[in-house]
Amino acid sequence: xxxxxxxxxxxxxKYILSIVADExxxxxxxxxxxxxKIDYLFNKFNTAYGFMVERVGKQKAIAEWLSGLALNIPYxxxxxxxxxxxxxxxxxxxxxKLQNRVVENYFNFMANMILSIKPNERVHGHTxxxxxxxxxxxKPCNMAKND
Length: 147
Prior knowledge:
mainly alpha
């Protein structure tokens, strides 16, 4: 059954953060909580692909990063559709037209789900970094002064 977007967004957030937690465990990171998962996710993006934010914007940069399989999320047509059904963003037995639309927009949609995890990441397309010790924002210009 298709859920209201406020319900399925929470399910996607939980799903994405569980994938991040699995990766953190694989990397032997012991302190795993909501804040460390969010920091890990955005630090991973900023390190690997943050440079693209100035060129294409944060949402598109994250979508491109995800399309390179940066996270262990589904990337095959049937798996993407099954995830959308499981999360409640589409009903069971979607039409071919709806399936195609979901698959075509998948990485952009997942990028929006990631941005909704930490809404203050949406600041005029600029990359922001977070200090994992105190979870405070460090603007790039301040980082350069501290280095």
